[in-house]
Amino acid sequence: MTGEPGSGKTHTVNRYIPYLKQLKINAAITASTGIAATHINGMTLHSWSGIGIKKKLSDTDIRKIIKYRGKKIDKTAVLVIDEISMLDASVLDLVDTVCRAVKKSELPFGGVQVVFVGDFFQLPPVRRQDEAPYKFAFESNAWQTANPAVCYLTEQHRQSDSELVGLLSAIRSGDVLDFHYECLDRCLSRSPDNQKITKLFPHNADVDKINLEELNKLPGSSVSFVMKSKGNERFVQQLKKGCLSPEELKLKKGAVVMFTKNNFELGYVNGTVGTVVGFNEDEFGEEGVLPIVKTRTERKIIVEPVQWAVEENSEVVAKIEQLPLRLAWAMTIHKSQGATLDEAFVDLKGAFVEGQGYVALSRVKTLGGLYLNGYNENALKVHPLVSEQDDMFRSKSAEIESEFARLSDDDLTLKHNAFILSAGGEFTKESKISKIKHSNILENVGMLGSKSFISKAYSVEDIRKNYPNAYRSWDEDEDKNLTDHYLAGRPQKEIAQFLGRQKGAVRSRLVKLGLIES
Fold this sequence. Notes:
By secondary structure, the protein is of the alpha/beta class. It contains 20 helices and 20 strands. Strands 14-13-12-11-17 form a five-stranded antiparallel β-sheet, with no helix packed on it. It has a four-stranded parallel β-sheet with strand order 3-2-4-5. Helix 14 (about 410-420) crosses helix 15 and helix 19 packs across helix 20. The longest helix has 22 residues, at about 385-405.
């Protein structure tokens, strides 16, 4: 699943995960980095797979992983990998090797359904100077063997400014024209009215220096809020490393802060910026207070601590608790990935890798909220391989969309049911999925030997009492009869009764024959 920043990738994942839980399907929720993992209550892919920081796996390494992580991996039916752009191809190949070894299967990833999520135009894999050049995940043997279906999200939920949307699209397509440079240059020639807007930099050193200096400029002593933690220490450390809120958060009245988590009910999202206007008595901080933050929309929020957790097979194995805030006079472009900012002061003079400029520029909602300190020749670059691959992603997504559009409601339900059963899920009473189709599904997924499933299902024969030809293949004679009746103007309901088919099957066949549009 891919799409431009603000197209709803993380939102969709965060809706998919509860769906899997409801159906009691064991899912591993992972991401390429700790920061990305905290956004989806997951863990790093490295931790889940047991590969850690290893670049290669020996037979001994694999045996150890099977011993210590084998049970967890073996239970997994769905593996979600977020921020796939930052995962090196070599890591994905190692994960594929581990899954095959644990599952004792030569299928890609041992037969686990893998959901890759991310945008390859954003930040690429991180590597040290002494390491070999990175390769994108889509260059890996694992990806090419898996040959994933593509869902390309195209709606924009962050930017409504046509000039900014056009600029970002031009960067993606590699067609940045003089007009687009003029848009950026306008952002260079003006200074923000609000001196408290967040500054984005490529390097950590600039960020730490600015935040400390600005905090020290404020009068009075700071109030300290210390993170609490519970659970598996290894996962706790992963959460701490990935959490945008620091282990110790020092605040003063007048401090510029940014929210690091979404809470739509209280009126903030990851990236909402505000100013600490005071403190309210409570039992959390050292001083027994909680900060009051005034956002740019003049809304005052008493900020209470929230939790970040790592879940494994639907169980919380570690959690941390802290205020969902960080100092926000400055932050790195890397840590801004996933955030939505009303305004930002961006310094791209030191951009050193493809995607940095694109990520920084796509954080803001409008060009009016963008203030540029400068940009270099790397700032608007995208990797040529990514552009080429993106064209293929769009094409494959269009094919899949067309294929699904031709499915009748009944056929789509069959696909849903087949996935649930093959993933070891259970149907809930609230589910809209019809149990009457189970037996036919079981034939499709080769699970008829499972008595526990069959006992819950009606047989196809029950369905055929009303629809004699239900779920039978269409032959040439039937296609001719269907075509003749349809062209003669008979209603689809009557045709279905005449052919002993369900109405949805007739509609689906008419689409396939090209007689009606999907």
